[in-house]
Amino acid sequence: MKNNKFINGSIFVLSLICLIISCKLFLNLSIFADEFNTSPDVVLGGEFWLSMDWLRIGASALICFLSGLNLFQPQK
């Protein structure tokens, strides 16, 4: 039972780190695009890749949320 909590906690921490890194990279992209008077879709190579970047952030947030729910859910 203790091992299961450790695994769930590790998954939550790793998914939270992944979410923070993705958000920081997106923030740096936005700052770069603003300073060089361009748009994020030009920097990323098109509207499709900008959508994939948003999808990556959304998927990371969803995984982080679900792993957090799993961590704090009472075990039977």
From TrEMBL:
UniProt key word Transmembrane: yes
UniProt keywords, alphabetically: Membrane, Transmembrane, Transmembrane helix
Top-level lineage group: Bacteria
Record field: transmembrane: 12-33, 53-72
Full protein name: DUF3995 domain-containing protein
Gene source species: Terrisporobacter mayombei
